Amino acid sequence: MIVSMAIDNETLERFDRAIKKKGYSSRSEAMRELIRDFIGSGEWEFGDGESIAVITLLYGKDMKKHELMRIQHRYREISTMLHTHIDPVNCLEVYVIKAKGDRIEELLRDFRSLHGVKVVKFVRSACEL
Ligand code: NI
After folding, report:
1. Gap from CA of 9 to ligand 1 centroid (Å)
2. Which of these, 68, 71, 102, 119, is most buried using a 10 Å CB contact count?
């Protein structure tokens, strides 16, 4: 199956450099591995109990801060958050949340849907508490 996608030049150039450095023979080979890793990332395997998750959010200057704040206030389960200015235009935030799996998944979806978000990463630190 052939799949085409839209991507900006800068990201594609960085992707090409990264796959060359890591020794992939083609973009397709690298994308297949990324997709398998994405599917198997465990995000969909929360149990019924509460989990503790660490979420990192990288966003650029086009983030609408009031939308981010609205999300932060909607999730009272967030116990800690930390903001770091990583360069003149990008910010990194780290969240610790203790909640049921479906609430954590909902928060991840809300973060990813925000305009200006570049990377959302997630680590489940403990589950079934
Ligand atoms: Ni900042």
Report:
1. 25
2. 68
In whole angstroms, what is the distance from residue 49 CA to residue 102 CA? 10
Q: What is the mean pLDDT of the chain?
A: 90
Q: What is the pLDDT of residues 108-123, one digit of tens each?
A: 999 999 999 999 998 8
* Residue 1 belongs to a domain: no
Q: CB neighbours (10 Å) of residue 77?
A: 17
Distance 62 CA to ligand 1 centre (A): 12
Q: From the CA of 100, how far away is ligand 1's center (Å)?
A: 29
Q: Which domain holds residue 26?
A: 9-41
- Whether residues 23 and 71 share a domain: the answer is no
Is 15 part of a structural domain of the chain?
Answer: yes
Sequence-distant (≥ 6) Cβ neighbours of residue 49 within 8 angstroms: 100, 127, 128, 129
